Amino acid sequence: MTTLLERPEDMLRDLRNQLGPQAVLIGNEVPARNCNDWSASLPQTPLAVIRPVDAAGVAAAIATCRKAGLPFVPQGGLTGLCRGAAPEPGWVAISLERMTGIEEIDRASATMTVKAGTPLETIQKAADEAGFFFPLDLGSRGSCAIGGNLSTNAGGNRVIRYGMTRELVLGLEVVLPDGTVITNLNKLMKNNAGYDLKHLFIGSEGTLGIITRVVLRLFPKPRSTMAALCALKDYAAVVALLDAARSGLGPLLSAFEVMWPDYWEMITARAGVKPPVAAGHGLYVLVEAQGTDESIDAPRFQAWLEGLMERGLLADAAVAQSLAQTQKFWAVRDICAEFGQVLGPHISYDIGLAVARMDEFVTRCKAALADGIKGCESVYYGHIGDGNLHLVSWVTGLPIERQPKDAMDAIIYGLVREMSGSVSAEHGIGTLKKQWLGHARSEAEIALMRTLKAALDPDHLLNPGKVI
C-alpha cells in the first residue's frame, strides 16, 4: 500500500528541502517557458521543474524521478525546433538554467571548461575577451545553452571551416539515466584510451544522459574578416563559386550561405530589407573569410573576387568595407529568424542533401508543394557549403494549428529520401521528425540506436519516446 510519503508530489517536496527552495517548482509554480521549445507545437505543462546547480543535484533529481516512476526530460535554453526538450503531462523537467558559468580558460591547452546551462553567446564573449575564438554560431546564440548545442550536435554558420559542435568538444561530464556521474573533462587533443564516450552523448538529444559540464576547444581569434554578397546567374555558377572559394581562399573560408530568389523577394518585399545587390538574379551567395593579417588578407580577398568577376562567374558583388558592413551582410541572411513576424504562421524545415543536387531539390520541392497543397508557398536558403538546406512553407491565412504540416512533411521528406538526403542536418529529430527517421537511417542503424537506449536506460524514463 502506498504511503503518503511515497506520493510523487511529496517526494518532490522532499527533494526541494534537500536542494533548496528555488530548486524544485511544482504544479502552478512551473513557468510557461518550461512547457515547450521553439517548435510550433502545443505546450504541455510538466508535473514539476527541477533546477539543480551541479551534477550531484542532477543525480539527486534523477534518483527522485526514478523512485517515483516519473519520466524526466533535460532542458537547456529551449530553443530547439523538434520537441526534443519538450515535456509531456506527468513528466518532470530537469532544467540546467541555473547551471551556468565559465569555470576555466586554459590558455596553454586552448580550452574552456563551462557548465552546460551557459548561453552560447556568453561563451563566445568570454573566448573573445581572453583573446580566443569559439566558432560555433547560431541565430539563437543569446538564448541557447551549450548543453543543448551538444545534445543536438548543433551546426550553424561556420561548419564549412570548423565542423559541427562534435568537433569542438574535448571532454564532458554527464549524468546517466541511473544517476551515475561520469566525469571526463579531458583537455587532450590526442586521447585514444578506449572508447571516446563523449560521442555517445553528443547528438543523442538528451536520451542517453544529461550533460552537465563541457570542455570546449578554442581557436585563434581572427584578426581580419572579409565578406561579400554575390549575385549569380544560376546554380551551376554557385557550385563553381564554392569550388573557387575552397581553392582560392583555402582555410580562410568560414561561411558560404546561399539564398534562392524566392528568399530574396521575401526579405526585400515583405521584410523591408535593403540588400547591397539588386534583385533579378538567379541566386545570391554570402561568402565570408577570416584570417590573421588584414594587410594581407583583405587585398587577397579583393583580388580573388576581381578574378571571378573577370571570368564572368559573378553577375554582381558587394564587398564589405568594415565590420559593421559585414554585420549588415549577415543581417540579410539572419532575417529568417524574424519570419514569424514577416510571414505569420509557417513550418520550418532543416534537411541535408548533396551539394550538387540542391537546386534540383528546390525546383522539384517548390513545384510539388504548390501542386499538392492548395495555396502553399515556400522559400529556400541555407548553409549550402556544408550540404544543409533550410526551407519554410506555409498557406497564407491559416493559423499554425491548421497549417497542413503532415502533407508538407510527406512531400518534403519523401523527396529527401528519394534524393538520399537527411531529414535533419542540424536540428535533431525529437518527436516531430521521429516518424521520418527511417527516411535517413537504415533499419539496422535504428535497431542499434534502440539497443544503446535500452542498455543505458532500461526503465525508459529519460526523455522517452524521443528520436527512436
Automatic annotation (TrEMBL):
Chain ranges of the FAD-binding PCMH-type domain: 42-221
Query: Required cofactors, per record?
Result: FAD
Pfam families the record matches:
FAD-oxidase_C, FAD_binding_4
Instruction: Using the record, list the residue span of the signal peptide; answer none if the entry has no such feature.
Output: none
Lyase as a keyword of this entry, yes or no, is: no
Give the record's family classification. Belongs to the FAD-binding oxidoreductase/transferase type 4 family.
Query: What is the protein name given in its UniProt record?
Result: Oxidoreductase
